[in-house]
What we know:
The chain is mainly alpha-helical and 334 residues long. It has helices at 20-52, 59-86, 95-128, 135-140, 145-157, 179-216, 222-258, 263-280, 283-294, 296-306, 322-333. Helices cover 72% and strands 0% of the residues. Helix 2 (59-86) runs antiparallel to helix 9 (283-294), helix 7 packs antiparallel against helix 8 and helix 7 (222-258) runs antiparallel to helix 9.
Amino acid sequence: MENISAAPYEPTEACRAANRALYNFYATVTIVIFTLALPLNASVLHLFIFKLRFWKLNTNNIFLFNLVLADVLLLFCLPMKAYNFTNGYRRSVNEVLCKATLFMLFLNRGASIAFLTVTSIDRYFSVVHPGRKNLVKALKKFPEISILIWLLLPPLTIPTMVTNFECCNTHKHEKHDTLIKDVLDSMREVVFFTQVLVPFVILTYCTVHIINRLRRRTVGDTAKLRRAVFLVMSVMVVFSFCFLPCAVARMVLLVVKVQELSESEQEKAVVAFDGLMVLSFMDCLLDPLVYCFCSTKFKTLYFSNYFPFLVKRPSIPLNSSVGKTMQPVCSNAT
């Protein structure tokens, strides 16, 4: 029986890097992101499990923990992407590894967007409609909703693995193409754009209404409203910086491929798409912004555990009661 997992294929010209120097730069950026994100996400994961014990807290912490898991999935793909770029290929020359990497990238993207969106929607209902019964509040009582989200993601990601396709030749019709291939290609693109554009519209709606709520609020806990604004704005930053540019580049790439423009224009579109795809890897570095703005307890605990020198400690009065005040200060520090 032929060993499929070890059988490389001869990559076509569409899979080769058009500009080796530029792709070496992409590889360097990918390695830098991996080097910075690995200890960051490892420390966050350690904090959620051993310090916060997220399963005993509210559902928001469970959502944030799953967001960490999504970032960890992305980290597994980055060394492979950097290796391919360095060797002058846009993807692995092993078909199984290529499809597995695409599956993990799509799964990470879907999970990150899903949990970021759910967190923002929850904050929207808590601030704008605090007393209204809604589906999100009902679901928050069941932490298993996170498991349901993970179970729904693979069926949307399977099309990246069940069909052979060139690196960027989706919808570039050939004579031997079948209806099934066309359907799978279309499904992949629909999933790609839907999981970015629809949540972005939802996040924009939540952000605008939370900001309007803060402006109309004259009395009450404005600090809570400001934290909510910071949260949704941080999510918008992640979307606008990581996901939207990649989606726009993908749209341009499809237009160029379908219209069968000149080869130089296609290469420019491919290079731009790959570069913005590398930029999307930054979400594993920006997601900690969401953790900090979503939970002041998490921010305080993180800095006190990993960067204690940045935490301001209460000053000790220089008077006769210094001996009395020293003990509670030390006990609070521990």
